[in-house]
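Please check both lines for our workbook:

___
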Amino acid sequence: MKITDAKVFVGGPGKNYVTLKIMTDQGVFGLGDATLNNRETLPAKYLTDYLIPNLIGLDPRKSEDIWQVFYRGAYFRRGPVAMAAIGAVDMALWDIKARLANMPLYQLLGGKSRDGALVYAHAAGADLEDLIGSVAACVAQGYKAVRVQCGVPGMPTASYATPDTKGGTAPFITDFSGIRPKTEIWDTERYMRFMPGALAEIRDRFGPELKILHDVHHRLLPREAAAFAREVEPVGLFWLEDPTPAEDQDALKLIRQHSTTPIAIGEVFNSIWECNKLIEHELIDFIRVAVTYAGGITHVRRIVELAALHHVRTGFHGAPSHSPISMAAQAHLNIWAPNFGIQEYLVLGTPECDALFPSDHYVAKGMQYVSDTPGLGVAFDEAEAGRYEYQPGSHPIVRLEDGTLWNY
């Protein structure tokens, strides 16, 4: 069995999905997702110029060796561009193998460890009253876990992932109005004074059963993060996400020394080498890697198995930048992983997205259920893909009130 061709498609409904399709001489194909948000053309080019020419003629069943060649065979390793491209290839090869076996992919990993996987929704408000309404809407839909983000009184602009006005929609990921990023203004002192009380109010309103998550999005210094984590302990957060920038991993030691609030980190990590010490030293409670950015199913499985040895659970990234292909790959890992924790879930199921990526995977009452269709369980309509093309866009950037650039 040989790989005969591979194609890359860039575009989608409101997103620049980077979709890889690998074809074989037996008519079996596999799909992968290389979407790197706001840098989508880079992994696409990495695939077309470097990886695909080296795939032609190879046996797609040798996914481990192919992964090693593309990772270890490159003198300059890792990084989000390369790992997103490698991740797409790896997903597609696993998709091919599971289709050949006539099994859903999770069976090749070891079978189901659970019937369904807990997901969390996103609730956001311009102010606390607005946020409470958003949380109530999530609970009414059956979600048992909700990430909460709230506008901070006196903050000059909307804070991370919150709407500008009451009743508005929180911006997620990409602004397609132009390539130059907009600027958000951040004030740590205002945030530190307001947010612990807001989280306590959410807990009081919705009771002890709701799993509450909150994302700081790298905005605090280590001492501030330790103080914040300690102050919100009575809330009983399911997790506190990205309290400090991930580059300074020693900061997690300070947080651990001062608080038992569970910590989730890792969505910007690209390999086991960015997170192995955090896991081995048990400085985090949830690992947030994504199957795309962290090199595909082969490599993420290794991270999951290392985490299982150290009481660290999974909490895979699931922002809108992940296409239904990578979300399906993570769904199969979630249903298998003995140390599964939770899955981030933002509704992708618009009619346009469903037409581009038909699938029988579904979410009901806050749980994700995996289709038993052979492979990843996601199809791809190339004719539908022809409706879309790349659109340049950007993340916002963050500055302090005096103009200093801060962490997004």
Observations:
- The two ends are 46 Å apart (CA to CA).
- The mean pLDDT is 95.
